[in-house]
Design a protein that fits this description.
alpha/beta; UDP-N-acetylmuramoyl-L-alanine:D-glutamate ligase; 10-stranded mixed beta sheet; 4-stranded mixed beta sheet; 10 helices; globular
Length: 308
Amino acid sequence: MDKVATLTLNPALDVATSIHSVAPEIKLRCAAPGFHPGGGGINVSRAIRFLGGESSAVYAAGGHNGAMLKRLLNDEEIDNHSVKIDGITRENVVVYEESTGLQYRFTMPGPALSADEWIACLEALFNLEPAYIVASGSLPQGVPVEIYGEITRYARDYGIRVILDTAGDALNRAIGKGVFLLKPNLRELERFAGEALPGEREIRAAGQRLIAEGLAEVMVVSLGAAGAALITSDDCRFLRAPIVPIRSKVGAGDSMVGGIVLGLAQGMELADAARLGVAAGSAAVMTAGTELCRKEDAWRLYDEVSLS
């Protein structure tokens, strides 16, 4: 299996709990919380591990939350490389409202990183000499918005494939730098295309136009419960997701990325790797709170993902 490394510059300690109902101005007494490592790249590494693969997670960590984050990753037997920072790693909260079945997600901004700190993260990442880099998640204060683009440009010079899962200016600055695979959702693809994309024909046309403009070599566009679109310069395949019971949508996108990169690292054809990604994303919504995909669910669902 080719070596995979993930980068998370703004990780989080995810706290999940539940309550009968949410109301203002009163004390809300929640159920006992569960704690999980969080942040885009970290969740991708966790998904790869849960699917039976291996990867190395590089991340910034500070304070008591950072120490707990590392301990949780060690408990899950994930190869991880923390870079110490002065700030305290953020804490995100997910609350499930039992009376309505709704989920509330509270996401904090995270600490600022100094130049020495984010440079140390990049050094730790490239010292691993991976074949694939997954750069995922938001950027904390202090980190230049061009960083994903510069990582991609440097990686390309050394034959490293970059899978990018981010949004906004961080993604805009990576255009034309050689991203191998990008995983936008439909809304993000529409934002890039500058128009609504109501059907498969429009999705294909917009995706191939953006690939021609240098957005990425490959796009896997998440279509939610409908599955995903796998788009290259000369082809477009739609992957139909199996119908599954939905408990939580947290981590579905990261699980999808984990499945895709695991498949690629194991030598799967692109279409089969994308099928594994859709299966992993579907498996993730079957789990509660901030849990990710389960191996037995993902591999069972893999056989149910159809291509058209």
